[in-house]
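Risk register update: the risk of archive-format incompatibility is retired. Evidence:
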Amino acid sequence: MTLQSGIIGVQGIGVHIPPGRASNSDRLTDFGIEAAFLDNKIGVQKRAIMGDEETAVGMCLKAAADLVERGGPSLDSVECVVVVTQNPGIQIPHLSAQLHGTLGLRSECACFDVSLGCSGYVYGLAAIQAFMQQNGLRHGLLFTADPYSSIIDLADKNTALLFGDAATCTWIGPDPVFTTGKFTFGTMGVEHAALTCARNGRLFMNGRAIFNFAAKQVPSDITRLLSMNGAAIGDIDEFIFHQGSKYIVDTLAKLLQLDRTRVAFDMTDYGNTVSSSIPLILAKSMTRPENRRLVLSGFGAGLSWASALLTRPNVCS
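Archived output:
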């Protein structure tokens, strides 16, 4: 184990997007909408759908395998596993314990789940890093997996055209590509019913309420984040917002007066993947050396939000 003061951060990311796709263009007539609505508002042409035999555990295992192929850690070195999910498939035991057993990790390995949705990746980064630093751990895995296809009402336009399945596995290690600064967090629990699965086990979303929430809370949170970390808008090479919809991403860029070339958008071919949407993009962004400082911001169920500043260790402040 390392000293508690040891630097750790994001060292690599593995991803898994199921190959199965459901086409939104096939459902235009069902919902009485035009193709322009898919292009300009939702931004999703196809949704990734896990197969009948696939599970949240299985998707996580494939994300872990992808990480190992990309030069990830030896599984014997993993000391901590955290899973962000609100739809694990099996409620007991926790998904991280199932992964621990299937991956054959050593017994001296901490495992716990975090029940958060679209803000979950940023919360998860803060939680796993703080836990590891406090306990002097060197190598940890942060998984995300929220296969919403199993809880979607296919007759509900607000959700049926939006959500897709995916999983990611982030390596938190001692030789990071990105380190994190101070985080920001927030919750507006009084509005929690705007996104819930309390109705007959199917997902319900008040799209207008979620949009208004994001448009109000996220820009001010980004301003707060930058101030806390002694940074300015112009210092950031890329902004990675939760991919709630194209309209939400476009609106946040406009409200913050950002050049759209600095705002990531990538959900057209697989949809809103909940807690996996940010790390799916981050996995690509971290391979580009010109990306020296990134802002991540997740927002959604709860209603909750969280933001983080990521910096390459060799970048001077």
